[in-house]
From TrEMBL:
This is MARVEL domain-containing protein. Its main location: membrane. Residues 165-185 are annotated as: Disordered. One of its GO terms (cellular component) is membrane. The chain crosses the membrane at residues 37-57, 63-81, 93-120, 132-155. The lineage of its organism: Eukaryota, Metazoa, Cnidaria, Anthozoa, Hexacorallia. Keywords: Membrane, Transmembrane, Transmembrane helix. It comes from the Eukaryota. Residues 27-156 form the MARVEL domain. The keyword Transmembrane applies. It is a multi-pass membrane protein. Pfam families: MARVEL.
Amino acid sequence: MADEEGATTTTTTTRKCSCSCCDCLWVVTTIEGWLKLVQAIMTFLTFVIVSSFPGSFRAEYEYLIFVATTAFIFVILHMILRMTHLFEKLPPALTQPLLGMICCFLAALALLIGSAVVFAKGKDYNVASLEASGICGFISTVLFFCEGVYFAILYRHAPKRRAEEKRPEESIQADDFVQPTKPAY
């Protein structure tokens, strides 16, 4: 009977990670985590599908391969930094919502251009794998655009910077320090 009561109390409490350095549940318990997971899958599919095409060595395909691979690497890096709580320890200049917004919009634009070119080539030559890669790229574009809008909302609602909130106090000059009465030689 005591075991059954203990089992019910553990199921009602929130589940926390046993180690303090890693939060693997971040991916599935937050909206940002789900977004990053879907971004990782879509960018991975984008560059894998276009890389499997026999003529993928051409410049118009290599552009999408480069953009999708770079986006995939940065998404995975962001996920790792968030799960290991290292993201919070980064310098404030790297964690600003404005920087995230700019990067997401640039990634969305680059993916849109590359996906449009690959999708158009797939339509022209009737190659289903190029069309599929273009569609995955378009989905990635929408995901990065949505994340950019999320960062724009964060930026608009962010409190003023601490440097602006603190009024510059009178600077302490070296002459304001009291000299010791007896030097300690």
